[in-house]
Specification:
The protein is built from 17 helices and 39 strands. The protein is elongated, with a radius of gyration of 31 Å. The model has no long low-confidence stretch (mean pLDDT 92).
Length: 723
Amino acid sequence: MASVTFSDASAETRRAPQEVTAGHRHLTDDEIGILRSNGNRNADDTWQNVWVRTGEGAFDARRIVGCEIRGFLVVGRLVPATVQFHDLVLETGLYHSYLEDVVTGDDVVVRNVAYLSNYRLANRVMLFNVQEMSCTNHAKFGNGILKAGESESSRIWIGVGNENDARAVLPFEQMIPADAFLWSRYREDPLLLSRFVAMTEYGQGKTLDTYGVVEDDAVIKNSTLLKDAKIGRNAYIKGAFKLKNITILSSPDEVSQIGEGVELVNGIVGYGSRIFYQAVAVRFVIGRNCQLKYGARLLNSVLGDNSTVSCCEILNNLIFPFHEQHHNSSFLIASTIGGQSNIASNATIGSNHNSRSPDGEMIAGRGFWPGLCSDFKYNSRFASFVLVAKGSYQHELNVEYPFSLVATNGVNQPVSIIPGYWFMYNMYAIARNKSKFQKRDRRAVKVQRIETDPFAPDTMQEVLAAIRRIVELTGRYLKAQGDTTALAAVTDDALFQAAKDFLHQNPDAQFVLEDARCQKKYGALIYKPVRGYRAYRKILKYFAAATLVEYCALRHIPVLTQAELERIRALPLYTAWMNVGGQIMSEAQVDELLEHIRSGAIYTWEQAHAFYEESSCLYPTYKTTYALYLLEQLYSRPLSAFTAEIYEDILADVTAINDEMYASALASREKDYDDYFRSITFRNKAEQEAVVGSIEHNDFLQELKPQIEAFDSDLQRLFVGLH
């Protein structure tokens, strides 16, 4: 219920802080007369609560019209001028507005703002047709901090990864998915969790003297409510419905925009992001260069850089960069998604739980791509670049085969998995993936290095594990089939070697493996295991060779030599890797970072981000040592024992993959032009090319061909110094 407080005419007018009145003066009697004649009213009859810019000609009292002033008003330069943004051109000044405890910079426009309280406007700010814009003295602008006297229960948390809030994190302006990932995963460590809270509060004032901020060149028009909102430079807000407890990060190079009907509560909007058309976000952090539009709902979630969400719902999620989710009927709940992902229409991920409370969750690696109308039973986990065919998956899944295709066979049946499916049937997507995401990365400031190459240590680690799993399952299969070599193997190692030899010696063998741990109760059928095994091995060789080519380029050396190999081998070797918010780091580096945080050596998020940057600088080196390790694993011997024949074998396989990459990409794309059914809606070939283009003008293929040729050239001389 609203309360009534009667005015006390003798009450002392609030004074403006000294830091905002420096360089300002009180009004002259003539200026007070002009303000009164222009229909302005002031709660202070003496007008001593108004300060204006000093200097001859710096203040024109005629440019304040029809305003009601309470508290204090500090005005910057106000002279005859206009400010323009697109087709909106307004005269500078304060017109027909309620102003309470307001500070303005130079050349500001405040027109038709029904209630403006406790705000500081920077230079060239435009406020036009705003119903309410106010800031409380305890505002936190979406950050998960507390002010003096506030209880812990009033702190704003974001419940990522799980609906039960047991993975919740505190939002802060500098947050990136890597921060939220570490905070949400290591929940068993109370000391670490307390350090994360302290890092979030470091440097934040607790006094109850907060005021709202609108930075230079921001434009806010035709909006209903902004409360406890911090608006960055050059931000453009038009037709917003409600912005409450919000920070909008924006800069001239990364302009953020908020559009019609948008409702944002308790969160942070990243630089260069665009939110339009009745989108709603509550308890959130949105990264750089993101889009939220067409009625999308983002709740209790952290959304990584360069992501687009439209028409759908995201709830309790931690999503790494380059996420795509469209269409009205899809939603994604209680997940940690590794980025470079695409959620198809009607994918009701997280729609069914198997416990009495909604505490299930899902983890998916980079490149997660569930098909139309997919739904999953929680808890489930997916390796990187898993393509899931449309269907209802009735039991928990644990897909450990990267670059695979998963398909359902109906209720109470094993699922089908083709390991390495992308390498066999969709090489165009693999070849295009890296450049596609690099082009979409429009961040002017790249706080973190995001790995966009499908062939990276995180995925190669999964490939190596999948190879071992295929060999292990093949050994069991051979033994069950009565294979004499397998039956003669008396140890697990011997059986493993027998299965490995079989896979090498029988490239055309056709059989199906069973993997019980891929799906609860009914397991999975692993199709084309020999092809998958061979494709995986080739990809490991390709990654290793490509990494060594990059290393030579960085070192400005023409070829590898034994001395150079020894130099690489002397560097640290890391064999366990993690996708940390889109950046690939070794587990050892992550452990080092966490130990620094526990000990207090790192006590701010800026320092943590500096650690990420340092790790990214070392990444090419550590990736190179890992590449040599993979070659040793593939050939089951140390590099010192590699022969000329082995190097020739590596060269042959990698050259074949490189050439196949272009040929397969070309063939995959040609289908879109040559397929009969793709042409049936066109009158003739000319009309088809006018609508969908031609293979000859495909930008990606035109870029890919010279890249393939250059890599081939570098590859041919890579090992000549080792023969």
